[in-house]
Structures are given as C-alpha cells and as structure tokens.
Amino acid sequence: MLKRVLVVLFVTVYFTSCKTVKLSRNIDQKLATSFFDNQFTGIYIYDVAADKVLYNYNADKYFTPASNTKIFTLFTGLEMLPDSIPAFKYAVNKDTLTIQATGDPTFLHPFFKDSTALKLAKKYKKVHLIANNISDKRYGPGWAWEDFDSYFSPEVSAFPMYGNVVFVQNQDSIKVAPNYFANKLEITDKSYGRKELSNSFYFGKNRKRETEIPMIINDSLLLNLWNDILPNKVSLLHKSALKPSTIAYSIPKDSLFKRMMEVSDNFLAEQILVLASSTLSDTLGAAKARNFMLENQLKDLQQKPRWVDGSGLSRYNLFTPISFVEVLTKIHNKIPEKRLFQFFPVGGKTGTLKNWFSGNPKPYIHAKSGTLGNNYNLSGYLITNSGKTLIFSYMNNHYMHSNSEVKKKMQAVFEELRDNY
C-alpha cells in the first residue's frame, strides 16, 4: 500500500514538474522576440496553494509601478482601518460642536455622497472645524504640475468635501456641484479647466461629458463651502482647548477600497493613507502610514520599495514584481477570495480591465493595472481552467509600442497559464 502511494506521489510530482518546465519554456519563447528588445519587462508568477514559484523574469528588479501602487494602499487600509471609515473626531460643549479632520474622502463625494458630518453639525448652534492638522502638501512628490486641473489629480487635504472637485454635467442644462460654484462657472468655447492659481473654472458650452475639475483647497474655500450648506454656523479653528476624541464613522471601508481599485481613483488612494495615519496620530500624514507598514506588516519584503504616494501618480515610486506578489499573497492569506476579488477589476468585465483579458467563457483575471506614459503593469490573481489560483505581477516599463500591443503580449502569457496549468 505504501509503495503504491509513493509511486502515485512520484508520478504526480514528475508530471507537475514537467508541466512547469514546459510552461516556463513557452513563456520564455514569447519573450524572446524583438518586441521586448527596447523595453524593460519583469514577470513573477506564484502558485499560492503549492507555495511554488512558476516563473521569474527580472522579478527582483525595480520598476515604475504607476497605479499598481494602489495594491500597497489597499493592504494598508485593510490592516490599519476599522470596518467603517473614521469620518472625523468630535467633542461637544453645550451648543458647540468641535470637529477634527481625519482625512475621510467620502463627505459629500459625488459617488459616495456621505453626509455624516452634516447631519451631526445640523444639531448644534455653532460648529468649530479643525482642518489644519495635516503635514502633507497638496500634491504628492513627483506629481506632474501640468495636471493641476485634470480629473485624476485632486489635491490632498485633511477634510475633503465633494471629492475636492467641481463636478459639471451638461444634459438639458448645466448642473454644478458643489452649489457654491453654480454662478461662478464660466461657460466658454474652450473644453474645460481651471486657472492654475485660482478657483476660476470654465466649461465648454458644447461639452456633454460629465467632468470633474480639481479645486484649490484652502481655508477660505473650506469655510465658504461649509457656510454654503450651514450659513453663519461654521468657523475654522487652528487650536482648541477642547480635545475631540469621540470618533464618528461613515461608510464601510470595503466600499471605499472597491471604488479606489475598480476605477483607479487617485484621490481616494491618497486619502486612504491619510485616513490610516489618523489611527496613529492626530497630526495627519501619509508618510506616517507608509512608514508604519514598512516597519511592521511589510518588514519581511525581499526588496524594500521606494514608496512615496498612495496612488502611483509619482514616477519616484519603485517596486519589484516580487514585492507585489508578496503583498498580494499576504492579502490572499487573510481574506477569503469572494471578498478579496470584489476589490479588483475583472478582466473583460469591470473597471480598468473592462476591455481586456476577458475569459472564455468565464472571467479569469482579477487584477490592478498601472498606466503611465510608456509604462503598463498588471498585478493580481489568475484562475486557471483547472481551478488553481496564481498570483502574478507582469510589469512593462519604458516601451515605445502602443499600450494595446503590450497588452496583447501579456494576454498571450495569461492565456498560456490559464489553459495549461
């Protein structure tokens, strides 16, 4: 009996090894073309159940990750934030409510529309708001200055409102949120935008696409936005003798993470790190959260990353494919796949992967893309036809091809894994 078991085990190991060798050889052949001569490529593929590396190509080298950085932000949020988002801290003294910012991005956000702070503030005669408790600058290190009025580059702040953007719709008529800017938006023949150094917005009269234009966040604007919804009730404090310590909570954190990952929302990613820092200190700062994670949950990474922001907008970020697989494995080990996969865009189905990597007949890719000029990366989970879960990171930097050509080459590798492992 024992002899038979050993024979079966030997045969299984032998054929599995042969399959892995063949798979590796086939991927090597796909990479051994002139297409890859003038770009930098790294691939790491890991069978989580077998605890086995299936493929490693430049996986210990550092790459510009773009929005793959959000995988580290997701892990930070999962580890550091409670089940519901800490909207703010507060204290009450008779008829006065004092609110201290935590960085929650959902307050009156165009998608979430959370009104936790507004509902509480309506109950009091006076509202004091502390929103200067942040050490971060409005932009992350290395962000492109010319993106100041681009939808993907809202400013970071302690107490965001409306997603820190002006939201414009033009269907039967032009609608503006927040309402404060309804009579301040200039309708022009241009497309859309904002003056570089002021909250002066313009919008094309023939433009029909819903548009988000980042605001310049300062004390004056914050006070005006609050007093637009609660007239003559709100004032800003730089210090308070009363220490806000009671935490009010807004939406479930999974809702925030899903939105951040699915549409690759840079603003939400940056604010998640600010939020995470609120669990460490009253003085907010994304670097506190990043350093805490690197010194604790991420201290065992084989290659320590250069991690400078939450979104991946910065080209200063440097990560290896191995690091992404290690973090994705940590998340996989802690969270059931049903909950985990909801955070990630699905190939051929949702978010940033809606038009790529579709399954036949069912989806097989759950992953986060990362795109900057001449860079495209994808890291996440691949389900093979045999039911195995593979964790992968496939990174492409500094190419001169089109993004679609790069994605076709990647898809060939993914389908090889799906069909033959």
Short account of what is shown:
The protein has 421 residues and is of the alpha+beta class. It has 2 domains: 13-65 and 319-420, DD-peptidase/beta-lactamase superfamily (Beta-lactamase); 84-252, no CATH class.
Q: Which structural category fits the helices and strands?
A: alpha+beta
Number of domains: 2
Determine the mean pLDDT: 95
Series of secondary-structure elements, N-terminal to C-terminal: HEEHEEHEEEEEEEHEEHHHHHEEEH
How much of the sequence is in beta strands?
15-25%
Number of beta-strand segments = 16
* Helix content class: 25-40%
Strand order of the largest sheet: 2-1-16-15-14
Low-pLDDT stretches: none
Distance between the termini: 29 Å
What is the gyration radius calculated from CA atoms? 24 Å
Q: Overall 3D geometry?
A: globular
Q: Helix count?
A: 10
Q: Quick one: biggest sheet?
A: 5 strands, antiparallel
